[in-house]
Every structure is written in C-alpha cells, then in structure tokens.
Write a structure and sequence with these properties.
This protein is mainly alpha-helical. Helices cover 38% and strands 8% of the residues. The chain has two domains: 28-129, no CATH class; 159-211, Helix Hairpins (Orthogonal Bundle), CATH 1.10.287.110.
Length: 215
C-alpha cells in the first residue's frame, strides 16, 4: 500500500518549477470531498491521495494545513486489489487545495469525455495514467544514542549531598575543592550568605575528613 505521506510523485513525470497562484478560492475539505466523489464515480476501488499535507486519522488530507514547500498532489488508484497502480498528479498550483481541485475537475472531464465517445473507461484511463511508483528506499532504522546514566543520588542528609558531590567516586581533593567554593558562598559575612548553611557545611566537612581518615 502506498503511503499518503510524504508525497509519492510518479517516477519519470516532470515537476513544475514555478507553480501558479490558485485562482479559485476553494477549501481543502471541499476539494478533497469533490475528488473522492469523482474517483468513486470513476470506479476506483483503492484511492490514495499522496502529498506532504498533514493527515487526518483516516489518512486523508486534513482541512487545516501548515505552510508547505511542495504543494504537489498525486492521486494513486486501482480498479481492483490486484490491478496495477494508476496515477493522476498535479503541481500546477501553489496550494494543496488548488491541486486537489484540479485533479477532481480533470477526472470529471475524463468521465464526460469517455461517456460521450462511448470509449471503454477502464482502457482509456489505463493508457492515460499508467505509471509505476518510485522504488521505496529502504533506510536502516536510526541508531539510538546512548543516554548518559542518571546522576548518583546519596541518601538524604549525607555529607556528600551538602558538599554537592556528584558521582559514585569521591576523592578528598574533590571534597576540599567543593568545600572552599561553598564556604565562600555560604559565609555569613558574604552577601547572600547563611549561618545555618555554613554550619551544615562545616559539619559535613568534618564527616568527610573522618571518612578519609583525617582528623
């Protein structure tokens, strides 16, 4: 099954370099519903509206669309489950709605043309729009980057927490470096200092020295 997103343009079919401005104001919902009605009247059993438009849950283009770079639309369809894919594509206009509307009007004209001339519709459509989807590039799944392990957490009230020790490995040099930095920050004579935090820091530092065998 062809995916409705992103746009699957028919292989070998030319693209328009500069789209025209959509002349008729038409909503995407109206253009989409008109196209589906025409495709149903045409006798298509499987229909895929392929574009870069945001999709509804049922896989059809949503009525509300962000600004897109490529407004092209390719309508892929089959007469039966086992028949080949046929495609009607349009990138004439600078809006998804305009291109869907153009395809819907084209299908309506083709239906009238074949009816007036009594031409077998299936044969005519097959000759006009026979094409093959471009090969699907099989990309390997993206490699998942290894997430760094979460920082080690010490028990509540542990001297390592007070001294802001991160990681399981603790050195006395690290203790001294953190102590000097925090002592300057918490000293009661410093702006923003705290007597309570400074006292907690002293007690934690004493426990750290005992841990490393210093008095």
């Amino acid at each position: 099954m062809l995916p409705p997103y992103p746009l699957t343009w028919p292989a070998g079919r030319r693209r328009r370099a500069t789209p025209e401005s959509t002349k008729t104001a038409v909503s995407l919902a109206s253009a989409r519903d008109h196209l589906l009605k025409q495709m149903d009247a045409l006798g298509a059993k499987i229909i895929v509206i392929s574009s870069n438009a945001a999709l509804r849950k049922d896989g059809l283009p949503s009525a509300r669309q962000p600004k897109l770079g490529d407004m092209g639309v390719a309508v892929w369809f089959k007469w039966t489950l086992t028949s080949e894919w046929l495609c009607i594509s349009c990138d004439l206009y600078d809006s998804i709605a305009g291109n869907i509307r153009a395809i819907g009007l084209s299908v309506a004209e083709i239906r009238g043309f074949t009816n007036r001339l009594a031409i077998p519709m299936y044969a005519t459509i097959g000759e006009l729009f026979s094409c093959k989807p471009p090969p699907v590039e099989q990309k390997p799944p993206p490699k998942q980057e290894k997430q760094p392990p979460p920082p080690h957490k010490w028990p509540e009230g542990d001297w390592r927490n007070v001294l802001q020790i991160v990681g399981k490995v603790v050195t006395y040099s690290q203790v001294q470096t953190n102590y000097r930095r925090l002592a300057k920050q918490y000293h009661p004579d410093k702006p923003g200092g705290s007597t309570i935090k400074f006292q907690e820091l002293q007690e934690a530092y004493e426990k750290a020295k005992k841990h490393f065998g210093f008095k």
